[in-house]
Specification:
Blueprint lengths: L2 E8 L2 H13 L6 E3 L7 H5 L6 H27 L12 H27 L20 E6 H4 L3 H10 L4 E7 L6 H5 L1
Antiparallel strand pairs: 1-3, 1-4, 2-3
Helix pairs in contact: 3-4
Length: 184
C-alpha cells in the first residue's frame, strides 16, 4: 500500500512559522514539520504536547540511585564487610559519588532506549526519508493526502501563497508517524 504526502518546502524558518500558524488557524491538520535544526517557537505554534521523556528519565535515575545504594550497602555490610581506613561498614558519604554516577548512567541509557523504542528507531531498520533536503537547507510542512486528497489543489495554492518555494507530492511505502504520535 502506498502512502501519499504533500510537502510544502520553505527556505527559511520565519515563513515556515507564519505558514504553520496560518494553516492551523484555517483548520488544516498538519501531519508533521521537518527542519534541519531546532526552530524556536515551533512547538507552541504547531500545538505539540510536552514530551514525557523527562518523567521516564527521573524514574530511571531514581532506579539507578536505589540500585547503587542497595548494591553498595549489601556489598559493604553482608557480602564483604571489611573496614577500610577506619570507615564503618555503612558509610553513606562514601557512597554518594558512586550513587550519583550510577544515577546519571541509568537515566541517560534508559532515556536513549526509551526514545529509540518510542520512535521505532533501530540500527536494523531502513526508514524511508520524506525529503532528504530537510537535513540540509530546507524546511517542510507535511500533509497526509489520505485526509486531504480532494483538497490537494487548495492546499498547494495556500502553501505557495504563504511562501513555499516548492510543493510536491511524495509516495511512500511506509506510513510516516505524525508529530502527535512522535511526541506522546
Amino acid at each position: 500500500m502506498a502512502y501519499r504526502y504533500l510537502l510544502g518546502l520553505f527556505d527559511d524558518e520565519v515563513p515556515l512559522l507564519d505558514a504553520v500558524g496560518k494553516l492551523r488557524h484555517d483548520g488544516w491538520h498538519i501531519h508533521d514539520v521537518l527542519t534541519p535544526f531546532p526552530v524556536h517557537g515551533l512547538d507552541p505554534v504547531l500545538g505539540l504536547k510536552e514530551t514525557r521523556l523527562h518523567t521516564a528519565g527521573f524514574v530511571f535515575g531514581a532506579t539507578g540511585t536505589a540500585f547503587a545504594l542497595l548494591a553498595m550497602t549489601y556489598i559493604s555490610t553482608v557480602d564483604w564487610p571489611n573496614v577500610f581506613g577506619g570507615k564503618p561498614y555503612f558509610s553513606l558519604p562514601a557512597f554518594i559519588p558512586i550513587a550519583f554516577e550510577v544515577t546519571v548512567l541509568f537515566a541517560s541509557v534508559g532515556m536513549v532506549i526509551t526514545y529509540y523504542l518510542r520512535n521505532r528507531l533501530s540500527v536494523f531498520a531502513h526508514p524511508e526519508i520524506l525529503e532528504p533536503r530537510t537535513s540540509n537547507d530546507r524546511f517542510a510542512i507535511v500533509f497526509d493526502l489520505g485526509k486531504y486528497n480532494d483538497d490537494a489543489g487548495k492546499l498547494e495554492e495556500a502553501l505557495l501563497r504563504m511562501g513555499a518555494v516548492e510543493v510536491k507530492v511524495r509516495e511512500m511505502n511506509q506510513r510516516q508517524r505524525s508529530h502527535n504520535e512522535q511526541s506522546a
